[in-house]
């Protein structure tokens, strides 16, 4: 695969993520707040006039306004099983080969897989207990309802930033692995010109790489760091409310989890390394020793002290 084909593949992976995020926003408003397609049409129309201005928001606005022959919203009559051509899956598979955590795109791919389990889901819905997926208290208060819709917008925007940050992480790793010289700002400009993920947002990505061509992660750019800071309260509220009410929001949730992992100087992988060393003698590094120096502990006091390998997976 050449660099051009690869960039197109990553575009499609990001597209999967964008679509899933929009669907989760729609689901929170429809089933959480009990909003009609017409009401949501107005919300997406408003969103398309701001920082979320994009082709996918635009067509979602139009879809929600489309009526069937009987005057009912057409979207409500479409079966909730999503198909896929495979490009999202290819992006996720390659990310695993390169060791890059494009968690949001992966969740978007798996969300389509879960949607395809329609018969199983219908059966499970009558057998598995959980909270009723309705934000009744919020929906009943006009001010709270509008505030929550604003929070959903924040969750969508912040998660979108994470998705693109992960996509650029993948392209940077691929360029290093395959010897490519990718113009990251130029890629954003190309995508903005005529692709499905074209949006106002991509102009900010180009500006970030124009300012710093060696930028390691979009989340570290001054503009995007500030946008995430402003969006965080609403983003966290949406993920929390979705979890409490049993409204599935896998892409919103995994985007927030990645953000919290990425900003953590310390993660619990020290325990994981101890576990790997215990059952497989895979060795570990120590914080009080230089990086690249590996150790093995005989955790039980039985058996030998031979380490297997320093290969990490």
Protein model, in words:
The protein has 2 domains: 3-262, N-(1-d-carboxylethyl)-l-norvaline Dehydrogenase, domain 2, CATH 1.10.1040; 269-313, Single alpha-helices involved in coiled-coils or other helix-helix interfaces. Helix 1 (3-32) runs antiparallel to helix 8 (142-178), helix 2 packs antiparallel against helix 3 (55-65) and helix 5 (103-115) runs antiparallel to helix 12 (250-262). The model has no long low-confidence stretch (mean pLDDT 93). The protein has helices at residues 3-32, 37-47, 55-65, 87-98, 103-115, 118-125, 136-139, 142-178, 184-194, 201-211, 222-245, 250-262, 269-280. With 313 residues, it is mainly α. The longest helix is centred in the middle third of the chain and has 37 residues, at 142-178. Helices cover 63% and strands 0% of the residues.
Short structural summary:
About 65% of the residues lie in helices and about 0% in strands.
């Amino acid at each position: 695969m050449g660099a051009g084909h690869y960039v197109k593949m990553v575009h499609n992976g990001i597209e999967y993520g964008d679509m899933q995020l929009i669907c989760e926003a729609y689901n929170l408003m429809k089933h959480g707040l009990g909003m009609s397609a017409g009401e949501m049409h107005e919300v997406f129309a408003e969103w398309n006039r701001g920082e979320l201005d994009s082709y996918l928001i635009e067509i979602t606005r139009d879809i929600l306004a489309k009526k069937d022959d009987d005057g009912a919203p057409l979207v409500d009559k479409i079966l909730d099983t999503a198909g896929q051509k495979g490009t999202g899956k290819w992006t996720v598979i390659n990310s695993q080969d390169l060791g890059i955590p494009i968690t949001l795109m992966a969740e978007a791919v798996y969300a389509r897989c879960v949607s395809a389990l329609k018969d199983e889901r219908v059966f499970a819905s009558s057998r598995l207990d959980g909270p009723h997926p309705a934000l009744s208290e919020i929906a009943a208060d006009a001010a709270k309802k509008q505030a929550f819709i604003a929070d959903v917008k924040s969750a969508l925007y912040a998660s979108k930033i994470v998705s693109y940050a992960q996509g650029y992480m993948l392209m940077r790793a691929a360029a290093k692995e395959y010897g490519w010289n990718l113009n990251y700002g130029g890629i954003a400009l190309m995508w903005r010109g005529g692709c499905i993920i074209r949006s106002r947002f991509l102009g900010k990505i180009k500006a970030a790489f124009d300012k710093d061509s060696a930028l390691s992660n979009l989340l570290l750019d001054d503009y995007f760091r500030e946008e995430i800071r402003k969006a965080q309260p609403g983003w966290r509220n949406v993920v929390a409310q979705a979890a409490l009410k049993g409204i599935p929001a896998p892409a919103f949730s995994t985007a927030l989890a990645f953000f919290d992992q990425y900003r953590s100087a310390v993660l619990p992988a020290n325990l994981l390394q101890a576990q790997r060393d215990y059952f497989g003698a895979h060795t570990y590094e120590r914080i009080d020793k230089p990086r690249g120096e590996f150790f093995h502990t005989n955790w039980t006091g039985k058996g030998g002290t031979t380490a297997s390998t320093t290969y990490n997976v």
